[in-house]
Specification:
Elements lengths: L1 E5 L3 H13 L3 E5 L2 H10 L4 E5 L1 E2 L2 E2 H8 L7 E6 L3 H10 L3 E5 L3 H15 L6 E4 L2 E4 L4 E4 L2 E2 L4 H11 L8 H7 L10 H15 L4 E4 L3 E4 L2
Parallel strand pairs: 1-2, 1-3, 3-6, 6-7
Antiparallel strand pairs: 4-5, 8-9, 9-10, 10-11, 12-13
Helix pairs in contact: 2-3, 6-8
Length: 218
């Protein structure tokens, strides 16, 4: 798991980074809003831990950018007397908050609690390499930008995203996919759909298993 951690207090940051890395998580620590936004532009994250008060602005600015890609849990770090901002953070959709000073064990417990809630089977978000799928809204995002897919491209993508460990033969895919008119998709059309998915979402979104068929990217 890759965590974006925005905190400008170097003493607090050092302890938190050590604790997070001890759990086996990868951490990108940023001490300003600007650097956090740069980090978000460079690669995807799985979780965000954001201080509300940074040297060049508010953690809200980072949160607004994160919200463009659904399914990323966020915990805010707030001052003990900052109740108004705490309420605002929750109303904006933050998953939790923790007030300073805090114990590292408490912070880790809060993060794990949020992760359990997000992974308890109720989430509408599916993921593939570089891609997030909101099944409730039938929308797909590639690196934070919405990717327009046709109905059949979307259905094909869901086939892989919902069965990540399974290798599908071409025959199995063809048996389960229908076009919008209710006709079977033929073999040549399937090749075109897979090509288009790779063009729109990246080569690694669907992998070819030589001699067998296809599977979801890892």
């Amino acid at each position: 798991m890759h965590i974006l951690f925005a905190e400008d207090d170097e003493i607090i940051a050092a302890g938190v980074v050590y604790a997070l890395q001890s759990e086996g998580w990868e951490v990108s620590h940023c001490n300003s809003v600007g650097r956090a936004l740069q980090a978000l532009a460079q690669r995807e994250i799985d979780f965000a831990l954001l201080d509300l008060s940074l040297s060049d602005g508010s953690g809200y600015a980072i949160f607004e950018r994160i919200r463009k890609t659904p399914g990323i849990p966020v915990i805010f770090l707030t001052a003990a007397d900052d109740e108004g901002n705490t309420v605002r953070a929750l109303e904006m959709g933050a998953d939790d908050y923790i007030t300073k000073p805090f114990r590292l064990r408490e912070l880790l417990a809060r993060i794990k609690s949020v992760l359990r809630r997000c992974n308890d089977g109720t989430s509408d978000i599916l993921t593939l390499p570089g891609v997030k799928i909101d099944t409730a809204k039938a929308k797909v995002w590639k690196e934070g930008a919405e990717a327009p897919l046709t109905a059949m491209e979307y259905r094909l993508l869901l086939t892989f995203a919902q069965n990540k460990e399974r290798v599908f033969t071409r025959a199995q895919i063809l048996q389960n996919l229908w076009d919008v008119a209710g006709n079977f998709v033929n073999d040549n059309t399937l090749t075109v759909y897979i090509k288009r998915l790779r063009e729109k979402l990246g080569e690694n979104v669907v992998l070819t298993v030589r001699g067998l068929g296809y599977k979801a990217g890892e």
